[in-house]
Amino acid sequence: MRNSLFLVFGWMVITLGSCSNKPQKAAIVEPVKPPNVLFIAVDDLNNWLGSMNNYSNTKTPNLDKLAAQGVLFTNAHCQAPLCGPSRASIMTGLRPSSTGIYGMIEDDKIRSDNPTTQELTFLPEYFKEQGYYTMGVGKLFHSHAPEGVFDESGGRVKGFGPLPDKRFVWDGFGDSDRENYGRTSTDWGAFPEADSLMPDHQSVDWVIERLQRNYDQPFFMGMGFLRPHVPLYVPQKWFDLHPLDSIQVPPYLANDLDDVPPVALQINDLPMMPSTEWAKDSGEWKKIIQAYLACVSYVDYEIGRLMQALKTSEYADNTVIVLWSDHGYRLGEKGTFAKHALWDPATKAPLMFSGGTVPKGKVIDTPVEMLSIYPTLLELCGLPANKNNEGRSLIPLIQGRKEIEEPVAITTYGMNNHAVRAQDYRYIHYEDGTEELYDLAKDPNEWDNQADNPQYSEVKSRLKSHLPSLNAQWDKNSSYTFQPYFVEQKARTSQE
């Protein structure tokens, strides 16, 4: 229809007519609905995926398939190497250094008594405000979600069970002073007997049932997996996929931490966790890794169930998927089995997008931040940007546009302790001014601290310029009592 005039109302296009003299009826074009969102969080999932490095003969066919169907970021980093502050950062769109949420915090208290967060709109709420029907189940925020965030909530089973009557290997206290350290749920072994007894299985069932419903508006569906968070318990069949003779341990250097500042050692003081030396001497190192890989393979299977349900639903062709983890997880690197650090194995985690306009089969190794999930999802769904977001949308990077500034990812652990991850370097700056610097092209295991090497002074200065200018006081409702350093830091800085 030449010379036609069009008015656009939201998603509806109405033809008013052409400039000819013939009378014409108005034609209504069916609206194109904005895409649905499937938002998948996996707890403590590091980069040991088949699509990334395939350590220890990893078996993750469904995660690898999802990555191949979209864009995989192989160098994505959390904003805090601890689930509470990491998830709060993703959901608020703000850095820990802006909110003061450096430790664990109850979901309902993220916006309590904090002038920076109290007026913020959480990521799922933003979609609700834009006309989406929002649903969520499992671990999405630290526990599940603040009251009323979702239109429909499947909740979260408390704890990380099911649990056997007695621990298999690790008592949860280790060599710690029980008065100064808490008890970790770390343990490993085959339990329970069936997948159907796992909370994650039940959560996926909840999502599958809802993917079979009809909705008169686009939906936002959050699915939060508990595994591979400790305890590393899944049924025996997942252990059988990873025989011990196929397991590789990661690179490890016994005197690795001899050249790091004292504050780094304080932060890494985790006697309630198994140490790498203990794991070596006891013969448990490969068994811990086997259990971790078994848990990852189990979650991969559940993700496969989820993807199959989406594929056979009416929403298969109009759903954007994002899968992320809240941080990495060390499996013997840097002396222990934990996250809790500003080094690469603790901060790096999977991030992938697929569906909608996302290109297929693209792999990006540029450093990016989990903080970018919020603005990227909004842009993928054609929604207006949230001006409060501190993260940058990844759409320009996905589209291959050249970065104007040096791409870096910033991780914060406690007040004024930051890591800046660039393409070839990791710079760490602690609250007392001490530093670490690693040349990752030459030293991918971060064994040789070059912070005092004058040959790297220009690199160090450049990366230092990316440090956050704001270091907010600890949020009164946020704490991390499992680590004495953070208890002392919060008490000390609150008095300054």
UniProtKB/TrEMBL annotation:
CDD domains: iduronate-2-sulfatase. Residues 35-382 form the Sulfatase N-terminal domain. Keywords: Calcium, Hydrolase, Metal-binding, Signal. Pfam families: Sulfatase. GO terms for cellular component: cytoplasm. Coiled coil: none annotated. Gene3D superfamilies: Alkaline Phosphatase, subunit A. Its cofactor is Ca(2+). PROSITE patterns: PROKAR_LIPOPROTEIN, SULFATASE_1, SULFATASE_2. GO terms for molecular function: iduronate-2-sulfatase activity; metal ion binding. It comes from the Bacteria. Belongs to the sulfatase family. This is Choline-sulfatase.
